[in-house]
Write a structure and sequence with these properties.
This protein is α/β, with parallel strands linked by helices and 437 residues long. The chain has helices at 13-23, 36-46, 61-71, 88-96, 109-126, 137-149, 164-189, 211-228, 235-240, 275-287, 326-338, 352-359, 375-385, 403-408, 421-436; strands at 5-9, 29-33, 50-54, 78-83, 101-104, 155-162, 196-201, 204-209, 242-246, 252-256, 259-266, 296-298, 302-303, 318-322, 342-345, 363-367, 393-398, 413-416.
């Protein structure tokens, strides 16, 4: 669904109707208006790609062009001026005052078609994503605006890739571009002729479809992406189901494999008059998928390929600390409280896992433990395999610097000792937000 739009401003009923009929064969929707007031309402509501202005108006073209600029600050339509004059000075004046093209009447139907086709070809080509060949951000949002203006409702899907930036950092631009192109092809294959697919940014797509099709499309994309995702990774990373992302400090983060997260909002019972509240609702709906490590989609409530779901508190600010060094444990607890978190201290006892289940902390700061016993590694494995604690984020610290072993145990962040409190609590802040949103 390309959904192009054009506005004709012409006081002459016969010629204006003739131009409209010619252009309707080339453009999805053509509006014809003989007064500027109603015409500018169309500009505000539909954001036409091309505006054809005739010299049948008493006002100067420069005044009309200036008003068009006021009403089209968020995008730039092509303006074509059509006049009975063929004088060079009139052409130059119109072009200097904002016209992109000047047509002299009488003009043949074939020439008008050719000119309009050329302009729309340029509009489309300059707004296509060079990576996917889909409509880019600006034109995608214009198409969304037009879809909301139609009488019939539609479903809007925000299709995203989670863990995109760490993947790009580790695997580079070429591998990332190939991955995006592959997923773009998968999305395109799931759509039919009446659907629209645009690219908002790298790894973020906009789909407009019929309400009854949206969940079927989302379910297919979740299945298809999880089927192919391991092919984007090395054998080792695919086997581990994570990659290690390095940060500016000495800390390293374990990041899961790419997954697709999809939000669906239907323009039905809640009629959207503008795209801003709809986009805000899409982002809010997308948050419902954040607790799941695998691909998922959300409509009014979160839907997953499996029936498993974990309930959480409205906001969890508990930070559990398991640190054998008493002075460091005291510093970590005090700093946590100063930062506004609820700090809970634990040891490596056998009943620790039960206590953690009861409190369900958002983040655990834990030392690997004794050099021989490695109590922290074993406890981390138990935490990550426990259904009640699977969403809890774990920062493992160690003097031994065996990061491969630590990451295999399930740590989200590896932080070698010695570390400073600002570094570790910058990670706590991020992980608490990740847990809750």
């Amino acid at each position: 669904m390309i959904n192009t739009a054009m506005l004709i401003l012409d006081k002459r009923l016969e010629l204006g109707t003739k131009y409209k009929k010619i252009c309707e064969k080339l453009v999805s929707r053509v509006f014809l208006h003989s007064d500027t007031e109603s015409a500018f309402e169309v500009v505000l509501r539909y954001s036409p790609d091309l505006i054809l202005v005739s010299d049948s108006f008493s006002s100067e073209f420069c005044d009309i062009a200036q008003k068009i600029k006021v009403f089209t600050q968020s995008y730039r339509p092509t303006i074509v001026y059509i006049s009975k004059s063929a004088l060079t000075e009139d052409k130059l004046k119109a072009l200097e005052n904002g016209a992109d093209d000047y047509l002299s009447e009488p003009i043949s139907s074939d020439e008008l078609k050719a000119r309009i086709k050329a302009h729309f070809r340029r509009i489309v080509e300059t707004n296509l994503s060079p990576l996917t060949n889909f409509y880019g951000n600006k034109l995608s949002l214009v198409v969304l605006k037009r879809a909301l203006s139609e009488a019939k409702g539609c479903a809007v899907m925000l299709v995203t890739l989670e863990n995109f930036e760490p993947y790009k950092e580790v695997y580079g631009i070429l591998a990332t571009e190939k991955m995006i192109q592959t997923y773009a092809a998968i999305i395109s294959s799931a759509l039919s002729q009446g659907d629209f697919l645009g690219e908002l940014s790298n790894g973020e797509f906009l789909v407009i479809t019929k309400p009854e099709k949206a969940e079927k499309i989302a379910s297919y994309l979740v299945f298809a992406f999880d089927t192919v995702v391991e092919k984007f990774y090395s054998e080792k990373d695919a086997r581990n189901h994570y990659i290690i992302s390095k940060n500016d400090s000495s800390s390293e983060q374990k990041v899961g494999l790419l997954c697709t997260k999809i939000a669906i909002v239907t323009d039905g019972q809640k009629k959207y008059l503008d795209i801003k509240p709809l986009l805000a609702d899409l982002l809010e709906t997308l948050k419902l998928t954040k607790n799941q490590k695998k691909s998922s989609y959300a409509v009014d409530r979160v839907r997953f390929p499996s029936n498993e779901c974990i309930e959480k508190e409205s906001y969890n600010d508990i930070v559990a600390i398991i640190e054998p060094d008493e002075s460091l444990c005291f510093l970590l607890s005090t700093t946590a409280q100063m930062q506004g978190y609820r700090a809970e201290n634990y040891g490596y006892e056998t009943d620790t896992i039960e206590k953690l289940r009861e409190k369900r902390p958002a983040v655990i700061i834990m030392d690997v433990g004794d050099l021989q016993k490695r109590e922290g590694l074993e406890l981390c494995r138990k935490i990550k395999s426990d259904r009640c604690l699977v969403s809890t984020k774990v920062i493992l610290t160690s003097n031994t610097h065996n990061k491969e072993e630590i990451m295999r145990a399930g740590a989200d962040i590896y932080l070698p000792k010695p570390y400073d409190l600002l570094t570790i609590y910058s990670w706590v802040s991020k992980l608490v937000k990740d847990y809750n949103y």
